[in-house]
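Q: What does the assembled structure look like for these inputs?
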Amino acid sequence: MFPPAAESYLTDGRTVWSWLTTHDHKRIGVMFLGLTLFFFLVGGLFALALRIELLTPGRTIMGHLAYNRMFTLHGVTMVWLFMIPAIPSAFGNFLVPLMIGARDVAFPRLNLASVYLYVLGASVTLWGMFEGGADTGWTFYTPYSTTTGTAVLPVLVGVFIIGFSTILTGLNFIATVHTLRAPGLTWMKLPLFVWAIYGTSIIQVLATPVLGMVLLLVALERVVGAGIFDPARGGDPLLFQHLFWFYSHPAVYIMVLPSMGVISEAVCAFSRKNAFSYRMIVYSTLGIAFVGFFTWGHHMFTSGQSTFGAGAFGAMSMLVAIFTAIKIFSWLGTLYRGSIAIESPLLYTLGFMFFLFFGGMIGVAYATTSLNLHWHDTYSVVAHFHFIMVGATVMAFLGALHYWFPKMSGRRAPAKLANGAAVLIIFGFIATFVPQFLLGNLGMPRRYADYPPHFQSLHVASTAGASLLAFGFLIIAGYLAWSLRYGEVAGDNPWGSEGFEWRSASPPPTHNFTTTPEYPTGPHEYAREEVPHAA
Amino acid sequence: MNELLRRLFFLPEQGSTFAVKVDHLHYVLLLTTFAVAVGIGAVGIFFLVRYRRRTASDPTPRVVAPVWLEALFIGVPLSLFLLWFVLGFKQFVWVMSPPQDALDVYVTGKQWMWKFTYPGGPSAIDTLVVPAGRPVRLLLTSRDVIHSFYVPDFRMKRDAVPGRYTDLWFEAPKPGRHPVLCAEYCGLDHSVMRGEVVVLPPADFDAWQDAQRRNLPVARTPESMAVRGERVAAAQGCLQCHTVTGAPHIGPTWLGLYGRKEPLEGGGAVLADEAYLTESMMDPLAKVVAGYAPVMPGYHSRLSAEDTGALVEFIKSLRPLRPGVTAAEEPVYVPTGR
Ligand SMILES: [Cu+2]
Ligand SMILES: [Cu+2]
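A:
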């Protein structure tokens, strides 16, 4: 199945058992990649069902209850089973040790445990889905989530378990980056992807316990009637929202920061340039990780929180947007005077920058507080976070998949087909989600199984776009599967990249490096002489 | 221009004074976003063409952003964002502060309908009738889960939360009809929990209200909310601890309580508005007025949403009479805002 070339991590033990008991960060990364891709497919099928139901007002293929369960499962699957582990657990595990010149992560056994915790949590969640499935939305707002009769409990427990997988992965990366960097590889020489994973890990370790706690409280409320969120017993339903968003706003950055790391790598590699402003990208990564914890109230402008509170959260949210703006300018500057190769990872990078900018600016508009009163809980918000989650993170995920496919498998995907698919995905995305912004402007609330007829034309446009997207994903799945076996053998560094991970063979041997690599400069130094100014 | 942009962005009709204000900010923001997005796209495509790779080993220079450029990249968006924030937050403060002469209507969300109650009667399901050109303040609560009262034409929504009151105000300048939607997911029929705001010319509104009050069957004489509140207060035993005469007893007197700043046990003070009065019924020990023992039980399970609203109206009606001021049928209150 894989190139019969030299010894690699793929040929070191060929049995299933050797995979199930592996401590090799690369194999663990590959397993996470397979698992998250599977759940991306599941969540995508849910999304398609939703889009089909929304083709017409009234009933198209399912009733209200089925629809309400379907959007809950779509959200839960995509957020916790795909988006959060996708880049850190799959690509992070594979690449971070390679990028810092280490043989493995700091705690290889914990790393394996995080795979099993993820599988366990996912199984419990899946079982809950077959048991009928929760109908609360992925946000589990009380008091609805504590009173509805559907199978909320297994989903809560499943997500709770997955949380531990996330925490272990985060802890592992923090310890790895601190202790296992090769001699001479100082902090300010670290690849930007490593910085992004490091920032993400901090958020994972600090925020995920709050999610675990709040899910546990909802479970307690359902099982023994604890009354914490129940106003009839002196509880406060809004307390849930504060706790939930205290996790879930930073969680947005758990999903976005790694993708920013991917883009920082890809933009350098495909323009043969050093990062335009390495330190701005590093500091803004840390800035996002920190300030992201103080913006959760922007999800509650209409909930009756104080006017002053809304203002403070709005202003903090503006600050987070600045960090993102800085990165976009730095990536754009990297292209300046580069040698730009039109390859699929670069196309995804361009799509990423555009969608992140547009989606981010809508976020800035929400942070003005007054505009949010119209947009809150409408399709505008749905479009906004899909711009960030699909337009940015999934684009980066696909970019990473194409950029590092030769690193992981030793083979290349057909370039022309990959470029075509990237263009198709970008246009499919625009066709799906731009109509949703307009739906939000028109006043279409989210989580609606049924809607007044004047919203229909935009819904039809969005569904058409979604089928284009689905077609694009199908093509990608097809040629990647084909390339695993029949793709052109890549060689060690098919892209000519100066990223540190390419210093080992592709696919890498079990212990990554045969000789200890040296690090006289930072990553992506292509030039020989220095030009200090942009002019 | 306004009309053109409104249609371009698919915004619905501008049914309130706030809608016009907020739409202008919307245009400024979106047009700026488009302009910068086009700029970024143009620069990106220009780089792509100009610096396209010709050979696999094209030499590239090492370019690092100079500090002034970094400062520019931070400074320009930061000042733009802060400017927008100041503009937006000003509108937000304005729209969060109901004017003094607003007409009050109580709104109760319930799976899956809206109930509107006028302090002097009547009450209606799913249709809210209001006069044009006069501010209306809605006092929202819910009987079960959280709902959100949303009128797209007013660019305005507010959550209806069980166990507490939130408020929202609007002024519809012209007569017309505006759909009401529920914007917070509330279960099975969330998507069909719809209603309508009917804006009538002021004279027609008065006539409608009179007719409604007159036409109620005798057995259901329109009991004003304040009257009902007085009955509830007696039935629930509130008056055993709270006087309506101004004399302090086990709890603070209700006379003139509404709109007063009460010092709190443990420091600080609270404005006795609808939200505080409701909170004190549901969770009395949260904020105890200084000088009183924390002995009041919570009434959440004992008071329906209607009874709670009625009690609040009763307390609001207990204002010390001053010469020349006659008790009004419409609620009298001190505004919490401007
Ligand atoms: Cu957020
Ligand atoms: Cu609802």
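Residues 17-50 of chain B form the longest helix (34 residues).
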